[in-house]
TrEMBL record:
Domain named Malonyl-CoA decarboxylase N-terminal: residues: 153-227
Protein's GO biological process: acetyl-CoA biosynthetic process; fatty acid biosynthetic process; malonyl-CoA catabolic process
Organism annotation: Clastoptera arizonana (Arizona spittle bug)
GO molecular function: malonyl-CoA decarboxylase activity
Record's protein name: Malonyl-CoA decarboxylase C-terminal domain-containing protein
Cellular component GO terms, alphabetical: mitochondrial matrix; peroxisomal matrix
InterPro entries with a match to the protein in the record: Malonyl_CoA_deC (IPR038917), Malonyl_CoA_deC_C (IPR007956), Malonyl_CoA_deC_C_sf (IPR042303), MCD_N (IPR035372), MCD_N_sf (IPR038351)
Pfam families: MCD (PF05292), MCD_N (PF17408)
Positions of the Malonyl-CoA decarboxylase C-terminal domain: 230-503
Amino acid sequence: MNSVFVNQIWQTLKHQKISFRSKLVNKFCILNRPSRSLFTNEPFCKLFVNNMSSNSGEKYMKKEPAENLHRAFNEVNEGQHSICLLEDVLSLQNKKITNWAIENKVKSLCCHYKTLQNDNKEIFLKELATKYAINHSALSNIIYQTERLEVDSEKLLKIEEKLKILMVPQYSWLFKNIGRLENGVKFLVDLRTDIMNLVPKLDAKKPEYIAIQQLNTAIRELLTVWFSVGFLNLEKITWNSPCSILEKISMYDAVHPIKDWVELKRRVGPYRRCFVYTHSSMPGEPLVVLHVALTKEIISSLKGITTAEGPESQVNESQPLGNEDPNLIKALIFYSISSTQKGLQGIELGNYLIKDAVNYLITEYPQATMFSTLSPIPTFRIWLIERIKLAEKGEQIFPTGLWNEVLQYLSSNKKEPDWAHLREVIVSNSWYHNPELICLLKNPLMVCCSRYLYVEKRRGYAYDSVANFHLRNGAVMWRLNWLADVSPRGLTNSCGMMVNYRYYLEQAEDNSLNYVQNQKINVCDQIAALSTSLTAKL
């Protein structure tokens, strides 16, 4: 862009106290420069104005002047180019043209989209969602015409065919063509990630919010078919697996992050297993990662799983997997499961991976008859702190006596319960370094956590997302474990507590149905007793 032209635009934008749109219109009416022609293009002008008017546009207005405005101009020009490419590709939908030509156009669109800045990606997605969704006007017209006609069976079939075509959003055709490209499926998974990142930024009252949600649903339904369990490959990861896969395994563990290669080697070594799902359209990309410990019993702590401590780990870690002692393997403990692709959120993969891993391992070790998780409780402490804040305001949140000993210990000479001090020691995790507080807090924290897991609900189902996942799979809420994860992460998430969800294979299907249809949670006596010991609503 001509630097004189840029500086003239800059001065107009910087000094005139009128709207951006007015500034642009006023300036471009008197300028006669090559770049001016772009601003006769309404979509381009709109994109440029919106970009410069938004919060993200402030970065171009803070520094002098030409290079930043030049960059803004180019970014918006790229955004407009992507919309032109989109229009060009979708115009081919009903044309007689070779698949080769369509493929090249679609490939160009995908390549260009990858180069866009986030702001332009969002504009592109809004355009795709609003302009190329279902044509409601055409759909209404054909329904109206049908109501006024006396139709025979032949006409009815033609009308049904038209309705079938009109009921499918135009972007569905684009998605299917993208899926045929090399790495096209991965592109769609990443595209859905961008859509999901955009949704929270939108005003739920505006039409574009619904349009984006419909776009999200359409792409999710397509991915659900493409990522059906029959199209997935179960792979066991070992230390001899490709370095690229091992590196991704170490990066993707969201439950218990892997610190270094030594820990990673232990996770795929003796008495440990790591399984992943892969897809032929995304080679070398683990979709879901499951870590399993082979133990003598259902364990109650991370000690001995993620570290080398504990009787089940007192083996020579350099020995081959085949030299494991079968007498030491009675239980399979699923201690970490992580989805690696945000774009596949809402598509059931983890439950199938657990089932496939069990089937794989019981053929290797048929004497293993106990199957359980050792699961985190990721948002318990947040839930608890919110209730302590209400208690600070004088609300009767907890049953009388539950926190008495702790509050007396913390309140010293104060007459009133010091709820603020309790909140402080829990938030700071300082209680864990005080043996007396550890003993005093055990009962109230276990009671509250049992209530959180078993009684607290969201739309009739378990409030805790991890609990909901395993209960839907047919597991039993089997045991709550005190100080099971005393890492900073474990203390911050759940005050160090973890829970076992046990899978009884012969009962899993019935348990799953009972939970999904009747919201019935199968729970052990320990958790049930702790949760019902509360006499007041939390």
